[in-house]
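Re-running the complex after MR caught last week's input typo. The corrected sequence lines follow. Everything else is unchanged.
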Amino acid sequence: MTRYIRRAALLCALLLVALLVNVVRVQLVRSDDYAGNPANRRTDIARWGQPRGDVLVGGDPVTGSRDTGGMFRYARTYTDGPLYAPVTGFASQVYGTTLLEHAQDGLLAGTDPGLAALPLLHGLTRARSTGGTVVTTIDPDAQRAAYEGLAGRHGAVAALDPVTGRILALVSVPSYDPGELSGTGDASARAWRRLGGDPDRPMLNRAIDQTYPPGSTFKVVTAAAALDTGVVDDLDAETASPDPYTLPGTRTRLTNEVDGCADASVRYAFEWSCNTVFAKLGVRVGVEAMARTAASFGFNDAGLRVPFPVARSTFAVKQDRAQLALSSIGQYDTRATPLQMAMIASAVAGDGTVPVPYLVERTTTAAGTTLSATRPRSLHRAMRQRTAERLRELMTGVVEEGTGTNAAIPGAVVGGKTGTAQHGVGNAGTPYAWFISWARGEDAPAPAVAVAVVVEDAGARGEISGGGDAAPIARAVMEAVLADKAADARRQSP
Amino acid sequence: MRRTGWRGVEVLLISLAVVLSVCGYCAVGLARHGAVPPGAAGYGAGLAVLALLAHLAVRFRAPLADPVLLPIAVLLNGLGLVLIYRLDLETPGDAAAPTQLNWSTLGVALFIVVVVVLDDHRVLQRYAYVSVVGALALLTVPIFFPAVNGARIWVRIAGFSLQPGEFAKVLLAVFFAGYLAANGHALAYAGRRLWRLQFPTGRVLGPVVAIWLLSVGVLVLERDLGTSLLFFGLFVVLLYVATGRTGWVAVGLLLAVAGALAVGRLEPHVHGRVEDWLHPFASIEAGQGPNQLAQSLFAFAAGGLLGTGLGAGHSILIGFAAKSDFILATAGEELGLAGLVAVFGLYALLVERGYRAGLALRDPFGRLLAVGLASILALQVFVIAGGVTGLIPLTGMAMPFLAQGGSSLVTNWIIVALLIRLSDSARRDESEAGAAPGGRTPASQHSPAASPDKDGTAAP
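Corrected-run output:
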């Protein structure tokens, strides 16, 4: 019997070996496989198991974390949620993350290996660090000025520091409170359904995710192309421009909103926004040079990230002369994001180069040690320095005596360009009102701010126009930035 | 020279087991609330008192018993309490740890009763047929009670839930050991020859077939694949050990496979378990979220080599069975592969010591009983651990000592008590090997110079 007892014991040993081999398989060999299964909620539990790092605007956090005591423990909170929603996006336990919350998720959630004191050990222990902090470039006063200026309408504002490319304001209206999507309860589910079904599309980030026909504001690009290619040399010389202008190869006649556009000089045409003059100028420049210039301003670039991706602004590379004529005044297939238009204003305000816009000044650990800082870069030289200089002249003219007088600021040099863009089938939609501009303190060596404003509807105001609807908002934003700059200067030199 | 076994070693190991359990309890508190739980001292003291009483019973009534058995039982019971307490934190309002502590107390009490009252294990052989009647009665009772979670294995009286099948395990082991010790010879040599297999006569074979039919019957009526498998495995192992005929194992496996296939096809509850085993992630792909087995695999995988640490895992995602059938997943997630290997090691040691007692004993009944009880533990661990780790189809079974459940815990304490008694007798046999085989004299009179019988044929 002894032999058989030993054999039975051997059987038990074999069962044990089978168990051990299988456990090694499950716990080590297939561990990553199981951990990566989307139905495994451990990743999300760990991710929400600690307070998220904060997003800072003007030195103060606009985000926070609330302990729910639930399985996905820390829910995101937002200060002035609707105001900063186009910057922060939302971070929801159920619906994921967007915008900065998404682009900086690793840092905010504490999974970024850079946060660990000992990165190698970090990888081994699979431990989580405390979430880091994202310091944004947003100027809270400019942001608020833009948001309040747009109140009650549909539209967007993008403002840049023309020298560095820092994004000073990024506003989209109507907005929403991203905090409503925090938590796992019925309230957030209701908010998600309501926001998703809202015809006003409050979660659309109009400043970067929506493209609009830029209308007359695109004349800055056309003018730059004309000056750079030598098609125009003297801003005050008469151009051979008929009014109305029959689009090449068609019977379509292009007209103007203002008088005096026949054979007008480029200066007059720019200040009073003559469509005929610029449509013809674009045709004379040619589609190749027009497309080249547009591209150098940033059109047709799908790779722009601030750090979240920005929708591609478009200028058709292949088009006939009639289409080119319309494209040159910002119609036909030409479309631009408000951020793209702010980049154009920036290039004019500066020396002709387009700065790369960025939203994250730097990132730090929770303790405040800097992890990364964004260095300003230029995207492209969009035009010659001399051309930029002459465009500044044209744009200041618009504000001093043209269609953009609503943007004038005492004690500052302001340049601007209005636009009223047709859209919809047969141009049936309410036109979009545009205003792009820049401002510099009278004695300041460098421009302080470039801004683009788009207003989708005039509401009860009747006729919509860039100068009437959009320019006052741009002025408020520019004033806010100039005031902050002046305050900074006073602080630095007592 | 007075021989008292290794009682000092036992005290040391028991202390270690208690300290480890209290450490686990504290670790949970520290991980969850950053503080030692307020009940840690009381819990430690309670466990220590229980262990000490058990030890005293062994010291005075079974002084030669194996010193490893009791400490392993204490440690596994303690670890089980820690894991259940830890899972209780996730389910406020459903605290199972206090109940489990009460059952532990009852288990240890019965352990002491068995060790004190049962003077000689051979007494049990007389009750072999009483045992099988009792086992059958216990097994049939739940048929008259409503099914719980698909299995009809529960008896609910006045708020108490019992699984009579658990107690039936011990009674069946006693019956099998008694029957086979008496009829082993007849089973091995009598009967017809069919092809290359020798079959015993119908009179001897009858009870065997009856037991097989019973196990399948239990399975079908109560939807309890685990218990059925356990009974059958136990019977095949004991039949093999008693007769030494490999043919029996072959026939047994054949019958088991045939029975399992038939039931797996026909019984929807069991069929579902087999489907889950073959495709653990089917419900995820179907968009219904992970099932228990998938959640269990996730938990084990999350543990990795070293585990998340006690209190830091999320095995509660498994759902309602996390504290019972799936308790091992919590061990796997929070203690990791390292902890799991240690837990398996404890079970292996327990089984090995049971087998060792079987090898050392002189009387066939004692040998078969020791092997049977050890095999119950081994099979149970394999069936449930294999089930929750996806090695074999899942069957509702309790991890011995670890899982929530009074019937199982009490039964396992009784099994350990019997193993203590058997190991005590075994060493007595060893001591008496040179003098009076099979006889019984007080332990203090034995000389330590005894040679164990290695081949087990006959005493020299």
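None of the earlier attempt is carried over here. Residues 236 and 268 of chain A are 8 Å apart (CA to CA). Chain A is about 40% helix and 15% strand.
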